[in-house]
Fold these 3 entries.
Entry 1:
Amino acid sequence: MGLSTGKLLSVVAVAAVLMGSAQAQPAGDPPLGAAAGDHSPLTSSRMFQVLAADVAMQRGEYEVAAKIYLELAINLKDPRLARRSAQAATFARQPAQILEAAKVWVGLEPDSGQARNTLAAVLISQGPLAESKPFLSKWIADTADPAEVFRNLNRVLGSQKNRREVFEVVREVAAPYDLFEAHMAVAQAALPVETKDLSVLQPAIAAADRALQLQPGSDQAAEVKGELMLRADPQQAIKFLTEFGTKYPNAHDSRYLLARILLSENKTRDARDALVGLVSNWPEDVSMQYVLALANYELKDYKGAEGVLLKLLDKDESDRDRVLTLLGQVYEDQKQFADALTRYRAVGDGDLWFGAQQRIALVLGKMGAVAEARAHLRAVNATPSQKIQLALTEGSLLREANLHKEAFEALQAVSTANPESAELLYDMAMAAEKIDRFDVAETALKRFIALKPDDAQGYNALGYTLVDRTDRVEEGMKLIEKALSLSPDDAFILDSMGWGYYRLGQYAKSVEYLQKALAKKADPEVAAHLGEVLWKMGQQDAARKVWRDALVESPAHPVLTSTMKRFTK
C-alpha cells in the first residue's frame, strides 16, 4: 500500500526537523564505540552491524538501515544510533518507524531538543490534534528557531482531516509570536478550510496583512491573501492584487493569481492583458503561457491561441497532453476537424486520455461519421463510471446529428442499467422531450430532482418543459421559481422565467427577465425568445435588432432562425 499524501507531508516535515541541524553524524560526536556516558562498547559483531546499516543507507535501503540502527541503539543505549534510525526511517517514508525510533531517542537522550522536536512532530502529525496540541506548543517554545517550526507547521499537520480544527490550533499556538512565519502559518492554515465563513476568513486575512506589514513586498503573503479574499469578495481580491502587482512588478505568483482570477470571473480581456505582461517578464514559465493560450481561446482569438500552443509543444517542461487537448479544441471550433482529430489522437495514456476519446467521437459526429463515432466510443475500455460518460457523449453526438430517437434509445438503455445516475436521467429526459415523449421526460426529471434536490437544473428543465410544451404553465412556473431560488444568476433559468411570463401573457415581466438573461449570456435561444416577446408587444424594430445581433454569432441556430421566419416572412 502506498503512503497517503497526508502521511507523506508529515514525513517531509519530520525530515525538516531532523535535517535542519543534524547529518548522519554531526561534528563533535565521538566515534561510535568510544567512551561516552552509558554507551555500551562495540563488539566486533555489533561493529559489523553498524557497517551493514551504513552500507544499506548508502544503497538507499533505508528501511533496512532504520531497523538495524534501532536494534543497536536499544542494545548499546546509544542515542546517536536512535537518531540515525529516525533519519533512515524518514528517508524510507515510514512514519511508524520514525515514531518508534524517536521514542527510543528521547528515552536515551531526554535533554536533547532535537529528539523531543522529532517525537513531537511525529505525534502531532499522526495523533489526535487535541492530544497533540501540548506537544506542539512545547515544541515551538523550546526550539531555538520558532520561525523554522512555523515554516513547516502546516506540513506537519498535513494528515489531520479536520482542517477547521487545524486552523484554530495553528492560530492559537501562533498567537504569542509576532513573526512573519507565524502569521503566514495562520493564513496558510485557512486555505484548505473549504468555507466562506468570515470567522475563518477575517482572522486569516488579518494574519496575511500582518505578514505583509513585516515583509511588505512578500509575493507569498500577497498570493495567500489574494486566495483568501477571493472566497469573500472576488472584486476586492482583484483590486488588492492589481494594486500589489503595480507596486511590486516582480511579484510572480500573486500577479499570476490575479490573471487566473480575472479569467475565472469572465474578465477575459483583462486576464489576457495581464498574462501578456507576465509572459514577457517570465518567458520560460510554461504554465503562464498555457493560461494565455486559454484566454485567447476564450476570446475566440484562435490564431493567438494556436501560436502559443504550438510553441509549447516544443518545450519539454510543458504538459503535452493538456496542450494537445486545448489545441484540438482550437481546431475543432474552427471546423478544422482533421487537425483536431490529429491532436486528440496524440494525447497519451494519462488523465486526459479518456476525455480525448470523447472529443474524437464528437468530432467524427460533426464530420458526419456518426456510425464510426459510435463504434469508437464502444471500443473504449472504460470503468463503470466512465461507461456512463461514454453514453452521455453518445447521446450528445446523436442529438447534434438530429438523431433524437436514436439518442433517446441509447440513453434509455444505459439509464435502465444505471437507474441511480442523475446525469443519465437528465439527458434521457432532454432526448425524450425532443421526440414528444413528455411522460418519460417528466418521470425522469422528477427522479432527477429526487436524487439531486439541491440542483437547480432539474427544476428548471421540468418547469420549462411544462411551460413551453403543455398547458400546465402555473405548475411549471412554480418549478422555475424554485430553480431561481437555488441559482438566482443563472441565465437559462432567467430565460425560463421570462418565457413562462410570456406564456401567461405578462409581457412586461417577460421582457424584464429575458433582458437580464441575455445580458448574462448572449445565447441565441434567449435572443429568439426576447425578440418574439418584443414583436408581440409591437416593438418590431427592437425585435429585429435583437435577432440580427444574435445572428452574427449563431447564423444557423434552429430556434433563432425558425422564430425569425415565423414573424418576418
Entry 2:
Amino acid sequence: MAKKRQNYLEGAAILSATVILTKLIGFIYKIPLFNLLGDRGTTHFQLTYYVYSVLLAVSTAGLPVALSRLIASSRAQGRPNQVRRYFRVSLWLFGGVGLAGMAVMLLFPGKLAVWAGDRMIAQGIRALAPAVFFVCVISAFRGYSQGFSDMRPTAVSQIIEVVSKLVFGLLVAWLLLRQHQPDHIVSAGAIVGVTIGLGISVPVLWLMKRRLDREEGDWGHPDTPDSVKSTLRRLVEVSVPITLSSAALSLVTLLDAKLTLHRLHHGAGFSEELAQTLYGPYSKAMNLFNLPSAIIVPVTVSVIPAIAAALARQRGREAREIMESSIKLTNLIALPMAAGLAVLSGPIYHTLFPVGETDVGPKLLMELGIASYFCCVYLITTAILQAAGFEKYSLFALPLGGLVEILVDWILVGRPEINIFGAPMGTLSCYLFITLFNLIFIFVKIKERPNFLAALLRPLLCTLLMAGAAWATNGLLHRALGPGRLKEFVALAAGILAGVAVYVLTVILLGAVTKEDMELIPHGGTIAEKLHLRSSHETR
C-alpha cells in the first residue's frame, strides 16, 4: 500500500503556497507589462486570454476533476488496475480534445478575434494555440496525481508555467517594444511564454508520475478493470457536466467583455478607442479580483477527491467534516482578501498601476473586491456538489447567472453616466446569483450537509475588525505623509500590516480557528499549542 500521503488540507496548503508564489511572479510579469502596454494594449492582452480560456475550459475544466474523483474512488475500493485504465484512457481522450482546440485556434484566429470584439488579437490567439494541446496532456497527469491526493506535480507545473511566462514572455515583449512594434503585437509576444512553459511541463510531469507509481508500489488486490468503452463512458458522464459548467462561465466572461465594449461604443456613445481605453483599467482590476479565487482553487482541487473517497467508503460524517473545514478555510481566506481589496482599492491600484489614461480603476476595484468573495464561495460550493456526485445541478445555475450578468451589463454599461462602472456590478450579480443556487442545491440534495452559518460568523467578525484597522491606518498615514507614490506605498503597507495583525489576533481570540482545524495541516498540533488555540467544543 502507499506510503504516507498528504491529507486534503496538506494538498490545499501545498497548492495555496504555490498559488501565492505564482501570483507574486505573475504580478512581476503583468504589472510592468500592463504599464508598458497602456490601457488599450492591456485590453488586447486580456481579450486574447478570454478566447484562450473558453477553449481551455472546454479542453480541461471537467476532465481532470472527473479523473481525480474517479481515481480516488477506485483507490478507496482497492482497484489498482482500474486506476491505471482511467489514466490511459484519459490521456488519449485529453490529447484528442487538445488537438481539436489547437486546430481551431490555428485555423480560425481572425474569426475568433472578430467574434471576441477585437480584430487586433489574432496574432495572440495563434501564439496560444499549442498551449491548449499541452495543457490538455498536463491535465491528465494532474488529475492522476490529484486522485492520489498528491498535489506536488500540479504545484511544480504551475511554477514552471509562470516562471517561463515571466522570463520568455517579458523578454519577447521587451524585444518587440525595442523594435517599436504596435501594442497588439507586443501583447501577442508576451503570451508566447505561456506556451513555452506548458511545453516544458509535459516531460517533467511524466517523470513525476513515474516516481509517484514507484512510491505507491503494489496495493490492493488484483482486479479486473472495466472495459475501455465503459471507462471512457464513465469519464465522459462525469466530466461533461463539469466541463459545460466551466465552459459556460468562461464563455460568459468573453461575451461580457465583448458586450461591455459594444455597449460603451454603441450604448453610451463613446468612440471605439475610448471604449478600449476604459476597458483597460477594468482588465487590470480583474487581475486583482481573481487573486482570492486563485487561492481558493487549490482547496477545491484537494477537497473533491477527499470527499469522494469518504463517500465511497460510506463515511458520511467524515465527508461532512471535510466540507465544513473547506468552507471555513474559504471564509478565512476570501473574506479578508475581499475586504482588503474594497477598503484599500485606491492605494492598491495607484501603487501597482501608476501609468494610466483614466482614473476609473480604484472604484472598479472596490466593486470587484466585494464580488471576489462570492466568486470564492461559488467555487467551493460547486466543488462540494461535484464531489458528492451532483455536478449536473451546477449546470442550472451557471447559465442563469450568466444571463443575469449580461442583462445587468446591457442596462448599466449602456448608460453614459454609469458606463464601465456597470461591468463589475454585473460580475457581482452573476456570482451572487450562482452562489445562492448552489447553496439551495446543497441543502436539498446532500444529506450530511455542512453548517454554513457556523463557518461564516467568526471569520466575518474578524474581517470587519481587520477592515476597520486597515482603512483607518492607511487613511491617517496618507494624510500625515502627504502626496507622492512612495508615501502612498508606505501608507498602504502600514494599513495592510495593521489589518493582518488585527485579523490574526482576533482569529485566535474569537476561536475562529480551533485545535481540530489546525491538526488537519502539517505540524498544526504544534502550532495550535504555541498559539494556545481552543478546541471546537470550547468555542461553541
Entry 3:
Amino acid sequence: MPFLFEDYCLDADRRELKRGSELIAIGPKVFDLLLYLVQNREQVVTRDDLLEAVWGGRIVSESTLTSHINAVRKAIGDTGKEQRLIRTVARKGIRFVGKIAEEVPADASVTHSRIPRERLEPILTVPDSPSIAVLPFRNLSGDVERDYFADGVVEDIITALSRIRWLFVIARNSSFTYKGRTVDEKQVGRELGVRYVVEGSVRQSENRIRITGQLVDAASGTHLWAERFEGTLDDIFELQDQIATSIVGAIASQIERAEIERARRKPTGSLSAYDNYLRAMPHLHRGTREAINEALPLFYKAMQLDPEFASAHAMAAWCHFWRKINGWMTDRPQEITEGVRLARLAVELGKDDAVALTRGGHALAHLAGEVDGGIALIDKALVLNPNLAPAWFLGGFLRTLRGDPDAAIDFFTRAMRFSPLDPEMFRMRAGVALSHLLAGRFDAASSWAEQSFGEAPTFLAVVAIIAASHALAGRTEQARTAVEHLRKLDPTFRISSLDGWIPIRRPEHLARFATGLRQAGLPE
C-alpha cells in the first residue's frame, strides 16, 4: 500500500521511496525505519520501539540510531532543525507528523501499534520478464568432500542461463544461502522475488554421474518439468548444457535454438583446473586475510593445469587487488606487477568471458590506474551477461571513482536486486557508502558503511569511510573511534596514502575524503 506525503511516495510492497518520478536510493534499515514511523504516525515512537521493530530487539549504539534517523530525514528533505515531517519529542521519542494520503481497503482494520515482524523482511517484486533461481543441488554421493563438485554443476547452469538477456537470473551467491536447508519453493520465490525455482541432486559413483533436475512454479508450487541425466565425468559439461537447455525450453518454448545454443558455454575444458577454481571461490567471497591466502594458491593451481583458464587469472588478479586495498601486501611493487600481469592475461584470454572481464577489468583499474579501461571491460561483460551481479557492483565502484557517484548507486541497486542474499553484500554496501561520501551525503554514507562493517570489520576501506563520514558530519567521537580501529588494521596508513590507495579521479572528491580522515585524526 503506497503512502503519499508532500511529493513523496513510500511504497511498502515495492520497498521504494520516490519523489515524483525519481527513485531515491536508501538503505534497507533506513527504509524500514521510515516505514515504521509512517505506519505508526498516530503515536510517539520510543527508542525501544525502534530497536524492537527495525533491529529485531538487537542493541545498537546511539550513534547508529541517530545516523539512521538523520538518513531518514535526509531522504525526505527534512532536517533535525526544521523537523517538518519527523518531529523529536523531548525525552520521549520521535513521531512522523506529515500529512499522509493512502488508499485503504473498505474493510481495513485499525492500524496496529507495531509492524508485524514479517513486514520488515525484504519484499521483492517479481520482474515482468521470466525470473529464476537455481538452488544448490543435493549431493547424494555420501562424500562431503564432493560437495564442491555438485556446487560447480549448479554454478555452470546459472552461468549458462544468465547469458540469456531476457531471463532474470538470481546470482549464485544468493541461491547458495539455501544450501543444506529443506526449502519450500513458495517461500524461496517470495524471498528472492522469482517466478520459477530449479532444484535437483547429483549422485556420483566412481566415474559415473547422475544429475536430476526439476523446475517448479514458485507461486503455486506446481512442478513444471523434471529430467534425469546420466553419463561419465568425461562429458559432465555436456550434461550441464542439456540441463540448461531443457530448463530454458520449459520456461519459454518459443525461444529460438540459436539463443539456447548461446547458453551453452563452459568456463574450461579441464575438470582438474575447474576443481581448484571451485575450491578457491568460497575463500574469495569471505574476503579475510586468511581466506585470500587460501584462495590464491588454488587459483594458481588452476592456471597451471589450464593456462588458458581466463576466470582463474582474473580471480587471482582480484585477490591481489583485495590484498592491496586492505594493506596486506608484503612486497607491494612485486604484487602489484603480478596482479596487473594476471589481469591483462585474463582479459586477453577471456574476451567472451564476462567473469574474467569483470574481475580483470576491476583489478586493472585499481592496480594499474586504468579506471576508464576497467569500466569499458565491465560494460562489455554486462553485454555478455546482463545478470552478473559482480559486474554491476564492481562497475558501480569504478563509476564512483571516476566521479559519478549517483550513477554508481544505480549500479549497486541493480547488483543487490540480482543477488539479494549475496555473501559479497558487504562490498556492495561499502560501495554505496563511498558513493554517498564522495557526493557529500555523510549521514547516508555512515549508515551504509556501518552495515558493511557489521559483516566485515577488517575491511579497511569501510572503516575509512566510517571515520571520514562521521568527521564530516560533526560526530567527532565516533570518527576518532573509527580512526583508532583503522590504525590497528593498518598502522602505516596515512593521509598521504590515500592518493595511491584507491584511484579517485576528481580532485574535489579526493580532497573531501582526505579532509574527513584528517578531521577524524589520521596523521598526515
